[in-house]
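Continuing from the previous page of notes. For each protein in this section, the sequence appears first, followed by its structure tokens. Read the first protein now.
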Amino acid sequence: MTTLFHTRIKNINVNQSLSFFLLFIINIATAQINVRADKPVALPVLNNSSVKIDPAKGYLVSEIKDKVYYVTDGIYQMMFIVTSDGVVAVDAPPSIGNNILLAIKEVTDQPVKYVIYSHSHPDHIGSASLYPATAQYISSTTSADELKKHNEGKSQIPFGAFVGGKPVPQPTKVFKDSFTLNAGNRIIKILHTHQSAHSADDLIIFLPKEKIVMAVDIIFPGWVPFEQVAYAQNIDGYLELHKFLLNLDFDTLVAGHWSRLGTKQDITDNMNYINDIISALQEGFAKVDFGSTVSKVNTSNINLMMETYFDAVAKYASDKVELKWKDKLSGSDVWTYSHARKLLSFVRESGVSMNMPK
């Protein structure tokens, strides 16, 4: 995996944003297994999957509604809200970096007064030190504890080492339950489901009047999720978060990744796609015969036997789901197998019957 990814990078020119992203993926991907490398050519990207960004500028800043903006470099997204009391910034991806400040300056001279951390992962907040030290930094208690550990150097890997970020300002306003930020003329509700999903604590930033919601690393509008179900820590919590979002009254979703905004339909599509993989895995466990599947390998190697069987079940599920979704979501041919491998243990531990020798 390391050789494959590094070879590809040497042969292409990438901008700074993509370089940060690829470095992040390389360092995570090298620790992963079962990533299929037998499909170097993917299906064409679907028309509804992205928006155009001026490559010379390197980012897009676009008004969603009533002075609520999002900024994207095509890989990451952040959101900011212009209020009569200053700017509220949500996240600070290092891939966008200083362009965040340039984007804000394009539309207002107001200073950044509030910074909200959607969660504690450095690829989304690692450039927060760009904001004024006098701003109020807001997060959940769980994320604040995570950041304190990172900022104090108690992690094995320095915070943001792979994505170009660095230690960020410690939150100055933390909360256990939901919190409402009244900034000037704006009401901003910061919600969470009280269980882990993608991360230990994923916040939902909700503007009820403007009908805008920001939820990061859950939905990838127009695309299947990032590999391994977007590295979800808790599959039950990940699926529940979909239902939580669908119960909110909103029109526009800022999802934190890729270039375009989302809607409730994107949430429904993602939930249905993941549930299709779960159903296909259940079917695969019932239909893929263990004995005949492992008969061609060295049966004295238990690990190899189990890997061969699990691979076959995941391949059964991914082939079925890819066929259904290839014309609906971009990337289904690239990462459905990865999602199937991630979800395989979730399904197996749910008590599914396996087609084992009698």
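Done with the first. The second protein uses the same format. Note its length before scrolling.
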Amino acid sequence: MSDRSSAGEALACALQEALPVGSLVVVCWRSAYGRLSESFTPGVEAPLRADAGALLERDPPAVGASDDCGGDRIEAAWWLEDGSRAAIVACLPQDLPTPLRAAWLAMARRIVAADLSAVRAHARAEALEKSERLQQALYGIADLAGSGLEMTDLLSRIHGVVCGLMYAENFYIVLYDDVADTMRFLYFADRNDPYVADPQRVIRGDEMPTSLTLALLRHGEPLQGSSAALRDLLGVPPDEYHGPDSADWLGVPMRRDERVCGAIVVQNYESAGSYGEEDRALLSFVAQHILTALDRFGAREELERHVAERTYALQLSNRDLQAEIIERQRSERLQRALFRIAELTITSDTLGRFYSQVHDVVSELLYARNFYIALLSEDGDRLQFPYSIDERDMIRESRQLAGGLTEYVIRQGRPLLADRHRIAELNSRGEVRSHGSAAHCWLGVPLYRDDSVVGVIAIQSYSRAISFNARDQELLTFVAHHISIGLARKQAQDRLVTAHGELEQRVASRTRELAHTNAELLAQIGERVRAEQKLTHQALHDALTGLPNRGQLLERLDDAIARARREQRAFAVLFLDLDRFKLVNDSVGHSAGDELLVESSRRIVSTVRSNDTVARLGGDEFAILIENIDGLGVAEELASRVLRTLGEPCWVAGREVFPSASIGIAMWHPRYRNGIELLRDADAAMYRAKGAGRGRCAVFDEEMREQAMRILDLEADLRRAINGDAFIAYYQPIVRLDDHGLIGHEALLRWRHEKRGLLLPREFIGLGEDSGLIEEADWILYGRVVTELARGGDGYISVNVSPRHFRSGDFADRLLRMIDEAGADPRRLRIEITEVALLDDVPRALRMLRNLRNHGVLAQLDDFGTGFSALSYLHRFPIECLKIDQSFVAGLVGESRPESVAVVRAIQALAGTLGIHTIGEGVETEAQRTALRELGCTYGQGYLFGHPGEHIRSAASIAEGYRSGLLESDAVAAFADGSGLIELGADEAFPAEADPIDSDRVEAAAAKAASTLIR
């Protein structure tokens, strides 16, 4: 016998109490899974136990059957309702009457059944408790992997999780590179071994040839036992360098793609045999989840590194852009200065005013607090200063040409930039002799007229904090050239005014006429100015509401960003969108919609501060710029106030309307470079609020930003995947439900991602639909399917066609052309469409389906039952098959069975009316297949018959897979039960003819046995 039952001797003793004193009882049973157990009373010898075991091995004729030897011995064996066997042997000190023997035997069967049921319940409870602890541990590991903990804290907490599953006080994790034969101790905790692990240290295999851990990694299979026994097994000599020996040592490898990449080891220095097979299996299971957690942690670090690199690249790009902007602004300032100098030659009434205004222009470009213009006299002997502003030399008198810096520039005919040291050097060489106060830095450039130097324009600084450079020299030289031209023009104008002074009287009358004409021109100019102002206002404001428009808002946002950078004052942007505004336009007209927009804008303006900006961006979208706020709370309070004000009822076109809105909030952050980025993030937050139920606000946060970056990266990967042909076809078989004969396959789209592995459509289909790239991926799938059809074979292949393809008028022609070019049989191709594709454009869909059917390509209606599912439209289309949605198939077994049966029966009736067949999708259990067959469904598809794979399945492999599917289904059911045991039915009753003489003793014995089992 293999072991004793959980009740020990209680079961046999309970049965013995109903027999005469001195009786011996042996009960043994074998479960449906082959496990042998027994219970016997004290004093039972081995031969009697052997007789009971031999009796158990015989095959009883039927459930509940037994044999009775008569006399002083009772023997019986029978089948229990769960498929297990039981046998009982009782030796009596005296004969018992037949009725009493039968009554006792019936009672024994009942008590044995109750005993086994209680044992199994207890075992299931223990298994469920272990399963719950394991599940909580795995959830804990998954949560830790997604947390922001550092690696040391992460591994320490994982150690704590493992300690909750088994004895793991001495625990370590090692990573292994099987190619380089190196390892790293990622985590090490041991109460007896003082070794301190360095996660960054790479240890070569030849450095630790006597390490039991290295032997485990090279062995590649779990090891359990004492350290000495394992070294003998693996041929590893003892080495005290690697720590003390343990009484029990358990290590399991971690695998990635069938390659050993690390291991987890637990040790017990005190108790031998403390780890069993269950602990080994449990640690192996947990090890893979720990590896997954480590991989997720590594992926997160890689993502953070990638984000940091991209952020640095953006910073460099932003720096270059800022430099370019500064250069452009400088060029614009210079251009404005030149235009203004040219204008001054006309508008300045005197040369003195012209010089003063030129000084103002130069001051806008560089430091010109000390500025003068020097000109040569007509005879060239004197130097005159028609204009001079200086903080030290208030007056500059004209003088004879001498050796000053000004004369030096005139003699050389080129600019001079000199600091205090250069000026002293020129003085020491006798080339110049300074006049006036000594400057810290001096810059002078010559003024030319007809290639001759006629003067100098100079600026100087008396402070060490202000110096000029070559760029300032270049700028002043460029400006001086235009000043020379303007000065010559102004001098010529002044001479012309002087020369024609005597003509003033003669032209007085003409001047009056010109004055009248000029008045008319001024009136026209005024009208034009007013028109320009009106156009400017219209260009910066919304015509309907009078609010600032997008252009003006972006300008103010850019100004706000500049102020925030300078003054470090926060601001926020609120992006507002009216909910269900299209319903107002469609129901009561656009004029009513305009009234609602005007009323909404009025209400929004009434809720904000006087210095806040409310703008209409277009349609039903508004934006609010609030500056100088203390934090996010101010913006959220304003958003709540706007929502309350907007939510008050109003009358539009004679109807009472209750407007509502969704608001997105984006707070200022230094990463924003312009207003467009702020509006973009506020818009994203608004869509988050609208998706959460409308009539509320949401704040843009880092999660949204990271999600946007993930979507951007995935879209780029999707484009590369299309260009790199990374999409493949997986085929799932479709079979007959009665004999499992193969009739075809459904081709399913898969993406073999270079980093994330195999991706299902649900992970990228939404992004593909939004970007329009999913159509290109679909055509790659169609090409692979057509190529597969061209190879020949039996059965058809169906492909899914989205409504987007049906909106394209050339879809059918393109598909048929692809089939023809590949030389495939179009009759072996099916297209699966949804009800949405049919009803989107009925005439186009009907033409397309008829065209495909005429060439042999039939159509199947996918996910039937989840849409309109009405005969009123279905009979108009050439549909070959209805595919029953897997939600209804799953509901055929369980609490929702009545509703699902009714739906499937209705679908079958509809299909029968149309003369088409049906396919049940998502068949995973034998019970679902049986229910579908009973309801009249002919064909089925699901995991019960085969999982999707890269290759077409044969009929033989489908049959083998079906048998494996049944076994897998049983295993899943047993695992879900918690112990692998099937629950028994109701207890077997006493036979009607039994003698009730000992019924009180029987009930008491049963109660005692049950209480013992519970304890």
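What the second structure shows: The two ends are 24 Å apart (CA to CA). The longest strand covers residues 742-753. We return to this in next week's lecture.
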